[in-house]
Amino acid sequence: MHLEPYMFTDDAGKWEDKNFICLCAYLSDGQRWQEFTAEWNELLRTNGMSRLHMSEFRHEAIKAGWDDDKQRDVLLKLAAVVRKYTLFGFAVGLDAKHYRSLPKEKIAGIPKPNVACLQRILKMIKNRLRAEGYDGRITFVLDEEEGSAVGLYKGILSLRKSRRDLGAYIGAVCFADDTFYVPLQACDMFANLTYKWFDDIARGLASKDKPPEILEGLLLEHRIENELWTAEELDKGIAEMNSATSDEESSTFDAGVRKILSVSHDEVKRREEQWKQEREREGKMKPGPKPKTSPDARVSKTKV
Questions:
Q1: What letter does residue 286 receive in the DSSP assignment?
Q2: pLDDT tens for residues 217-226?
Q3: 137 with 5: CB under 8 angstroms?
């Protein structure tokens, strides 16, 4: 599969001051993006629209005399265009208020929730592209809306300092008008609806198992990857969230190393001697010369 690694990305929640934030992205190849843009724009024109911006949609629809059924119909048709041409989607939601309340030692050098959110989606994207055979760098295409642009770019700069492996993964950052880079309008729709759903889940008002109808229309079956970090999830998995590693295997290895290093040298020796005695009693180890094994090998056999 040929992929052009241009990620069309949008945020929701206004990163600087909201209690809950969300970041979403879509990926597809060049040919599909061209076909998407043509069909999306034609559907907008058919309905007397020049662009879609979800924060303005209902107001504009009411002004045009559209009832709820008409609004729903248009949004579902737009969602069908997204499903038709988009290869992959990514979404991360985060309880920013709870994240800010966590002790400094727990947030692993990432003090701001927006940077944590950005890190998670980058890891998801990188792992997905690697699975598709792409190991190069990517370009982030972001909506040029002033408030979001500044917050997102600050987050990228911060990530390049705190998590160099992921920060370096972003080869270029582009801010664009969403009437010029039309896939940004799809990302706005995705981020807006996902934010509302995630926020409702975090407040106990919605189920993780059933997204709202229009958002469900945007989801790409098994081609959407999402993470929702509620206060409870953050308390249970903050180490995983802020892991600096770029894949699951490295994370597992690092966790194992930390666990081994947390055991004192005397305790390791005691457990090793106990293990040898047990083996000798069971007749599974013949007395004789001490086996030539490295310290690392001995530690790896110790139950920690």
A1: -
A2: 888 766 888 8
A3: yes
Could you tell me which residues come within 8 angstroms of residue 263 by beta carbon, excluding any fewer than 6 positions away? Answer: 302, 304
Q: Which of 179, 183, 213 is nearest to 196 (CA)?
A: 213
Burial 65-94 (b: 16+ CB within 10 A, else e): ebeeeebeebbeebbebbeebbbbbbbbbb
- SS3 of residue 222 by DSSP: helix
Mean pLDDT of 234-258: 53
**Nearest Cα to 159, choosing from 111, 195, 201?**
111
Q: Which domains does the chain have, with CATH numbers?
A: 6-246 (3.30.420.10), 263-300 (no CATH)
Three-state secondary-structure class, residue 79: helix
Out of 62-76, 86-100, 194-208, 267-281, pick the least confident. 267-281
As a whole number of angstroms, the distance between CA 270 and CA 33 comes to 62
Which of 78, 146, 154, 81 lies closest to 112, judged by CA? 154
What does pTM read for this prediction?
0.73
